[in-house]
Design a protein that fits this description.
Shape: globular
Mean pLDDT: 88
Order of helices and strands: HHHHHHHHH
Number of strands: 0
Structural class: mainly alpha
Family: Belongs to the UPF0174 family.
Oligomer: single chain
Organism: Mesorhizobium shangrilense
Largest sheet: none
Protein name: Ubiquinol-cytochrome C chaperone family protein
Length: 180
């Protein structure tokens, strides 16, 4: 037990967590989202894209047990620790962080519910509307929402084809977002 908690297994698990989280972040930071699809390149816009990719990862592992369930939980914890760290970097003080974290968690889970519903019904129009409502609430009409919805559909399909064993070993692959 002592070896498991403080030994090589814990270090290996940390390496897997870091690798998976880095892959999720890299997918969320694809330049095309911000340069061509008009996702705001702001802390909130980056939160939206990271939330979307975290949702896709969680959606893929939902319903699985064992190591996959553990990895899913560790990654969502990592996500929220990263969000908290980002708030502190933005200058939010100790008093304001819990209030902001509660609001951001509520936003995340609200979005995941909307995205999940649209994916389960295979309704790209509903997905595009949910994305537009969340990513560009100020835009009124956001033509690129349909491109992002197509990307999310492709990502969902691609993630579903990935073996759980590969994911829990530290490899997850998201599609490359393309203009067009």
């Amino acid at each position: 037990m002592f070896q498991r908690l403080f030994g090589r297994e814990r270090q290996a698990n940390r390496a897997i967590t870091e690798a998976l989280y880095a892959q999720i972040v890299a997918a969320a930071r694809q330049t095309v989202f911000y340069s061509d699809w008009n996702v705001p390149d702001t802390p909130l816009g980056r939160f939206e894209m990271l939330s979307l990719h975290m949702f896709l990862f969680q959606h893929r592992l939902r319903g699985e047990g064992g190591a996959a369930a553990e990895v899913a939980q560790v990654l969502i914890d990592e996500f929220f620790m990263d969000v908290e760290h980002s708030l502190r970097e933005l200058g939010i003080g100790d008093v304001g962080v819990p209030k902001r974290m509660k609001k951001l968690a509520k936003m995340f889970y609200g979005r995941t519910e909307a995205y999940d519903d649209a994916l389960e019904r295979d309704d790209r129009d509903a997905l595009a509307a949910a994305l537009a409502r969340n990513v560009r609430p100020d835009a009124g009409v956001w033509p690129e929402a349909s491109q992002l919805a197509a990307y999310v559909g492709d990502a969902n399909t691609g993630l579903a084809a990935q073996q759980s064993e590969s994911i829990v070993s530290g490899t997850v692959t998201f599609p490359i977002a393309k203009v067009g």
